[in-house]
Amino acid sequence: MTTPDKAEKSLHKIGEGIQIYIITGMSGAGKSHAIHCFEDSGFFCIDNIPPALLPKFTQICKDTHGKITKIAVVIDIRGGELFEPLFDALSLVEDMGVFSRIVFLEASDEILVRRFSETRRKHPLSSGGRILEDINYERKILSEIKNCADFIVNTSEMTSRELYDEIRRIIEHEASMRKLPLIIVSFGFKYGLPVDSDMVFDVRFLPNPYYIPELKNLTGLDSRIYDFVLHSEIGSEFAVRMKNFVEFLVPQFVQEGKSRAQIAIGCTGGRHRSVAMTEYLARELSSEHVAISRRHRDLELKS
Questions:
Q1: Are residues 125 and 194 in the same domain?
Q2: Alpha-carbon distance 162 to 160, whole Å?
Q3: What's the alpha-carbon Rg for the chain, to the nearest Å?
Q4: Which residue in 22, 83, 130, 257 is a FRET match for 10, CA 20 to 30 A apart?
Q5: Residue 302: inside a domain, yes or no?
Q6: pLDDT tens readout for residues 16-25
Q7: Boundary-marking domain end, from 177, 201, 216
Q8: Host domain of residue 193
Q9: Least confident of 50-54, 95-99, 125-129, 293-297
Q10: Listing from the earlier edge strand, what are the strands of the sheet with 44-46?
């Protein structure tokens, strides 16, 4: 497996939503096995899609608003002349802000000839001549897309299981580089739960500054409220436990392939304890896997 330097250019797109893997390469190199591996890993898969339809299909997936985010498609020489517009299609997909990777499968001439002989299948470019001539012609046609591939997998000596493991390594390699958008939201239970949250922490058990006259009209953004909440014995212990718990969960979210995660922290009115705890978690959470943002939903509402 090889990963060209251009992979670094695409990292800023990772985690913004949809991921698309383009599976291509030599006929007989194992693309059908590869697409099944992606399917088993939870990807929405299409075999032999014309390149011109890729941007339209990408838009359909974007319109699902997060229901379809992991996609793998096979685009290969079976499309004939339709294979040529692939670069234009990928450019349009990139303009849509969608992360894509190209996985190119290849094998030696000897292995490809043997595979076609054993299955008695015709090569897609067969002109009635020798199979080796068809293979060489296909290599020439695919040379440009191979040079642009993010991953090149030589299946000459691979079993189906070994190919499956290699695809899994590719998926996990990408997942390890993704930055998961993590939104931390403070809120007041009296105004209802944030409906789009993946996890909710209830901090109403912490000491409440609302009942202290000189603190009542301040918010969790004020250092006096922050210190009151975080420097209490129970507040300090809970904050550390919450941070450790979230740090444990974040890599699991990334591995699962979530496109975003939202953590909600709630107190009664959403102005004191939850705001202070949200500020603490956003400041202290340390993970190379996340891009953190914070929001205080009910901060401006009067209790």
A1: no
A2: 5
A3: 26
A4: 83
A5: no
A6: 468 899 999 9
A7: 177
A8: 180-296
A9: 125-129
A10: 44-46, 70-74, 19-25, 99-106, 151-154
Residue 247 neighbours by CB distance under 10 Å: 16
Number of domains in the chain: 2
120, 186: one domain: no
Place of tokens 């070994």: 162
My answer on whether 218 and 131 are in the same domain is: no
Instruction: Indicate if 40 and 142 belong to the same structural domain.
Output: yes
Phi-psi region of 184 (alpha: psi -120 to 50; beta: other; left: phi over 0): beta
Q: How far is Cα 233 from Cα 195, in angstroms, rounded to an integer?
A: 31
Same domain, 164 and 197: no
171 and 187 assigned to the same domain: no
| Distance from C-alpha of 111 to C-alpha of 155, rounded to nearest angstrom | 9
pTM: 0.57
150 and 254 part of one domain: no
The span from the first CA to the last CA of the chain, in angstroms, equals 59
Note the pLDDT tens digit of each residue in 143-161: 888 888 989 999 998 888 8
Q: Is residue 238 part of a domain?
A: yes
Range 41-68 burial, b when 16+ CB lie within 10 A, else e: bebbbebebbbeebbebbeebbeeeeeb
Q: Is residue 193 within 8 Å of 187, Cβ to Cβ?
A: yes
Helix runs in the chain, H state only = 31-40, 54-62, 86-95, 109-119, 131-147, 160-177, 213-216, 223-230, 233-256, 273-284
Note the maximum CA span of the chain.
92
Which amino acid type is present at position 159? Answer: T
CATH number at residue 120: 3.40.50.300
